[in-house]
Amino acid sequence: MQTKISKGLVLYNRNFRENDKLVKLFTETSGKRMFFVKHASQSKLASVIQPLTVAEFILKLNDSGLSYIDDYRDVAVFKQINDDIFTLSYATYVVSLADAAIDDNQYDPHLFAFLIKTLELMDQGLDYAILTNIFEIQILERFGVQLNFHECVFCHRTGLPFDFSFKYSGLLCPEHYHQDEKRSFLNPNIPYLLDRFQSLNFDELQSISVNDNLKKDLRQFLDALYDDYVGINLKSKKFIDDLGKWGDIMKS
Ligand SMILES: [Zn+2]
Asked: PANTHER family, from UniProt (predicted)?
C-alpha cells in the first residue's frame, strides 16, 4: 500500500454493504480509482465524498485491492452548479463522459485539469451548453476518434463553407460536396465552430457567442458524431435530453 497526496474530484459514490460506501475519485496523480469508506455516514469523510467535490486528499493506494482515503484538506464545492438543475445536469454529463473516456488507474493530468477548468467555468456562469460542446469535441481523442474540422479531406483547403461527410470522416469544401451525396448538409457555421472549439484556449471563450438555433444544431450534430463514432449511452445524457423536452413542453 502506497500513501500519496493528490488533488482529486469525486465522480460519484454508491452504497456498499450496510453502512459503507464506494467512492470513485478522479485523482490528478493516479487517474480514476475506487475508494472504500467504512461507516460512511459517521465518517469524517462524509462531507467530502459527495459528487463534484474537489479536495486535496491523502490516499492509501492499493493496485490490486481496495484503496482508502486517509484524510483531506482544501475542500472546494461548485456552489452555483449545485444550485441550478440545468447546470448540474450538464456538469454531471461532462463528468460521466470523462469517466467513460479513460480506463481506471490511467494517469491523465491533462484530462483532469481540463475537466476541473470546465466545471469552474460552468460554476462562474459561462454558457454550460457551449462548454459541454467544447468538452465533447476535445475529449473525442480519448475515445480514439480523430476528426479534422479544419480542412477539406480532398483538397486540404481551409476557411471555406464546409460540410461534414460521415463517409469520409471529414470535411468537404463546396468543390467536393459532390463526393458524398449523403453529406450532412450542415450550416457551415457548425464546422467552423467545431474547428474553433477543438483548438480553443479557455481565455478566448468569452468571445464566443452562439445563438439558440445554432446551439440546437450543434447539439444535434454532436449527438450524430457520438452515435456514429463513440456509441456510448450515458444516463446523464439521457437526463439532459429529457430536460430539454420538458423545457419545450413548458414553452408551448
Ligand atoms: Zn475540397
From this structure: DNA REPAIR PROTEIN RECO
Expressed in angstroms and rounded, the spacing between residue 160 Cα and the centre of ligand 1 is: 9
What is the tally of structural domains in the chain? Answer: 2
Using pLDDT thresholds of 50, 70 and 90, give the confidence band for residue 224.
Answer: very high
197 domain-assigned: yes
| Averaged pLDDT for residues 32-59 | 94
Which CATH number does the domain housing residue 16 bear? 2.40.50.140
For position 67, what pLDDT does the model report? Answer: 94
CA–CA gap between residue 61 and residue 56 (Å, rounded): 15
Surface-to-core class of residue 235, CB atoms within 10 Å of its CB (0-12 exposed, 13-18 middle, 19+ buried): exposed
CA 12 to chain centre: 14
Is 160 contained in some domain?
no
Q: Can you list the positions of beta strands (E) in 128-230?
A: 163-165, 170-172
Residue 1's pLDDT band (cuts 50, 70, 90) = confident
Residues 29, 132: one domain?
A: no
Distance 180 CA to ligand 1 centre (A): 12
**How do residues 120-146 score in pLDDT, each as one tens digit?**
999 999 999 999 999 999 999 999 999
C-alpha 249 chain-centroid distance:
27
Residues 136 and 54 both lie in one domain: no
Assess contact for 47 and 33: CB atoms under 8 A.
no
Q: Which domain holds residue 221?
A: 128-146+185-251
pLDDT at 167 over 60: yes
Distance 133 CA to ligand 1 centre (A): 26
Q: What would you measure as the largest C-alpha separation in the chain, in angstroms?
A: 67
In the reported structure, the alpha carbon of residue 229 is separated from the centroid of ligand 1 by a whole-number distance in angstroms of 23
